Amino acid sequence: MSDSNSSNYTVNERYSNVSNQTGKVEDKHGNNTTSPAILSGDEDKGLLIVKVTTLNGKMGINTSSDFVVNIHANDPAPASFKGGSETLVKLSMGMYSVTTSAIPNYNSSFSGDCTGGIMKVETKICTIVNTYTNNNN
Q1: Does the pLDDT at position 26 exceed 80?
Q2: pTM of the model
């Protein structure tokens, strides 16, 4: 007979043990944290990890949090947020895409996992790089 509190889900190498009862995540180093994306009842959701980086060179002044990231998908949570180092987004199965707000003199590039399809309990990583370009050269 198994203890219902010991039920764990394998999500990926980084978040290896997820408790269905507490929403606690144990990473591959054994550190515990609470994941807003994986809580009881979300076992049928995919996980999209969105990372936003801003490269300013010598002239740019914006930070990643100046860019608004929008998730276009089936029931994304959250659907929109300010960019940052890493945001966990839960998605229902299906197709999705990620966009970001436009800021003058910045070009945004997206990794391959910023668009596509996701299955339940699948994890993908979307990386967005916003690069300052001085068009006055």
Answers
A1: no
A2: 0.69
